[in-house]
Every structure is written in C-alpha cells, then in structure tokens.
Amino acid sequence: MALVMTATYMVAEVVGGIASNSLALLADAGHMFSDAAALGLSLVAVVLAQRPATAQRTYGFHRAEILAALTNGAALVAISVLIAREAWERLAAPPEVQGGLMLAVACGGLAINFANLMILKGGRDSNLNVRGAWLHVMADTLGSVGAISAGAAIYFLGWRWADPAASFVIATLVLYSAWGLVRETLDVLMEGVPKGISVEEVIAALTEIPGVLDAHDLHVWSLTSGRNMATAHLIIAEDADHQSIIDAANRAMASRFAIQHATIQVEHSELASQCNPCGSSAVGG
C-alpha cells in the first residue's frame, strides 16, 4: 500500500516542482523516488527472509533484510548531500518560485506520507529493514513539512530564500537519521553485540547456574533484527549433568537476554584442565 501511494504521488510532485520551480518540492519528489525504491527493496527483502535455509545458506536469507536496510541508509545519505549542495547554491541567488502551487502540492504529499507512516509504524522498532523504509518515509514527511512552510513563506511574505533554506534543513535532518540506520546495520554485519545486551551480564547469568564453574569464549551477535545468537563454553562440576546445564543456560539466555538460538559447549572441570591448562579469556577466543 505504501509503495503504490508513494509511487503515484511522486509523479505529481515532480510535475508540481517543475511547474513551480521549487527545489523543496523536487527534493521531496526525490525523497519519494527513494522511498519507492526503498519500499520495493524492503518488500523483496521480507519475501527473501521467509525462504527456508538451504544446504548452501544454512542460516537462510535473513541477512537480506539487513542488506536492504544498509542500502536504504546509504541512499538517504547520498540524497541528503545532493540536496544540501543544490540548496546552498540556490541560497546565493534564490530563483522565482510559485508559492501557491508549491503549497498545494506539498500539502498533498504530507497527507500521503502521513498515511504511509501509519502503515509502516508497526514494525519499525523490531525490524531494521522496516525501520529503514519508515525512516525514508519520515524523511519525506519532513520534506513535505518543509515544502509547506517554504511555500507559505513565499506565497504570503515573498521570501524566495525560504525554498532553499527549507531544503537545506530537511537534508540535514535526513542525514542525521540515515547515519544512525547505517551505523546499526554495520553493527549487525560486523557481528557486534546487539543493543541492550551486556556480555558481562550474560557471563554472570551463566555462572550463576548451579554446577557451572566458569563461562568463557562467549560470542553474541544478531543474524537479523530480533534474531540474536550466541555461543559459549561452560566448565561444570564433576557431578553436574550436561543436559540440565545446557537447558538451564538456554532458558537464562532466552528469558533474560532474548537470545533464542544458543550453542553451548560443556566440559567437566577435570577434562577442561587437561585440555586447556593455561585457561582462556571469558570473551572471544
């Protein structure tokens, strides 16, 4: 729904931007074009992520969503830089702009963007791919607000500089949002520890399990949004039961840290001392 509405009104903004000679409207149309591409990319990524794992891709296609989010974020950065550059040049010599037409078209764009935000808001907090698409639409909503403000200033006050000024402010806000998305997706691709999880707290939770003497070689990462993974090596007491320790470790990781997929290796303390007399670090390895 968001894709169809965005692509349809993008054409109206292009026509309106050319007719009114408004950079803010054309910038908003550019946002809508990137929105349409982002929404299409996100939709493809969602479909790919639902495909089952194969012998060649044992984790399936979940990372397609992260790649889509990274592409969307990088596109937003590039678009914001181009808009800021053009706005800076126009500030020196503001062209004639038809404020009334600009205002009318921008109001329609705001309505479309607001509807798209409502459609996409449900998944933005739990999925980076959807968040990337939502940020695209939010950036376009800011573009519409800026275009409306500039159109009103031009129509009622004759401030021609309001058009490039609004475009520059919009580009700055878009860049700020896009950079945060790019940073988060890179953290996932570099297998960083997911937000809200402390490695030290995970180790403490594992060593609190009765029978666990030590926990080390812990790795925690995200396969994609909402799919946290972990591996750990536990040294257990001689009289401890392997399976009960593994079950308790999995329950602790799932309930306290939202880690649903964990691979736990356990060894009795005597065997561990023979295999690893020098010990190992608690994290990594």
Overview of the molecule:
By secondary structure, the protein is mainly alpha-helical. It folds into two domains: 2-189, Cation efflux protein transmembrane domain (Alpha-lytic protease prodomain-like); 199-275, Cation efflux protein, cytoplasmic domain (Alpha-Beta Plaits), CATH 3.30.70.1350. The protein contains nine helices and three strands, in the order H-H-H-H-H-H-H-E-E-H-E-H. The chain has helices at residues 2-20, 23-49, 63-92, 99-120, 128-157, 162-189, 199-207, 242-257, 269-275; strands spanning 212-224, 227-236, 259-268. Strands 1-2-3 form a three-stranded mixed beta sheet. Strand 2 (227-236), helix 8 (242-257) and strand 3 (259-268) form a beta-alpha-beta unit. It starts with a helix and ends in a 10-residue tail after the last helix. The relative contact order is 0.12. Residues 277-281 have low confidence and may be disordered.
Task: Give a quick summary of the entry.
By secondary structure, the chain is mainly alpha-helical. It is built from nine helices and three strands, in the order αααααααββαβα.
List keywords for this structure.
single chain; 285 residues; mainly alpha; Alpha-lytic protease prodomain-like; Alpha-Beta Plaits; 2 domains; 3-stranded mixed sheet; 9 helices; 3 strands; 66% helix; 12% strand
Topology (SSEs and partners):
Elements: H1 2-20, H2 23-49, H3 63-92, H4 99-120, H5 128-157, H6 162-189, H7 199-207, E1 212-224, E2 227-236, H8 242-257, E3 259-268, H9 269-275
Parallel strand pairs: 2-3
Antiparallel strand pairs: 1-2
Helix pairs in contact: 1-2, 1-4, 2-3, 2-5, 3-5, 3-6, 4-5, 5-6
